[in-house]
Amino acid sequence: MTQQKLATAVGMSRASIANIECGRQNVLLHHLYRFAEALKMSNAADLLPTAVGSSRLDTELLGVPFADQNISEQTKAVMSELVSKALSQRKSKA
């Protein structure tokens, strides 16, 4: 699939797709679901890497930056755990 076709399918610009591929632009959660739909994937979580040897998602591994750099490590861990649980529940329902 070309960048332009994917961009059209997910409602983004081709430049945004190129920036995401190069790591210059972050992917929002709702975009992840649009990508999965456009790529005819049944589970958006399949687009995410999983932590090696762990069921917990690691924000560093995922490359998920937090907009507010003042968020505590404890809050980051709680947020990561919530995302991990949500994705696990989605996989078990699929």
Model description:
It comes from Lysobacter hankyongensis. InterPro entries: Cro/C1-type_HTH, Lambda_DNA-bd_dom_sf. This is HTH cro/C1-type domain-containing protein. Pfam families: HTH_3. It is a single chain. The longest helix has 21 residues, at 73-93. With 94 residues, the protein is mainly alpha-helical. The radius of gyration is 14 Å and the shape is flat. The chain folds into two domains: 1-47, lambda repressor-like DNA-binding domains (434 Repressor (Amino-terminal Domain)); 48-94, no CATH class. It is built from five helices and no strands. The protein has helices spanning 3-10, 14-22, 29-38, 59-62, 73-93.
Low-confidence stretches: 52-63
Write out the CATH superfamily name of the largest domain.
lambda repressor-like DNA-binding domains
Shape: flat
Strand content: under 5%
**Share of helical residues:** 55-70%
Organism: Lysobacter hankyongensis
Protein name: HTH cro/C1-type domain-containing protein
Domain HTH cro/C1-type: 1-47
Pfam family, one: HTH_3
Please sum up the structure shown:
It contains five helices and no strands.
Give me the secondary-structure topology.
Elements: H1 3-10, H2 14-22, H3 29-38, H4 59-62, H5 73-93
Helix pairs in contact: 1-2
Organism: Lysobacter hankyongensis
Domain HTH cro/C1-type: 1-47
InterPro entries: Cro/C1-type_HTH, Lambda_DNA-bd_dom_sf
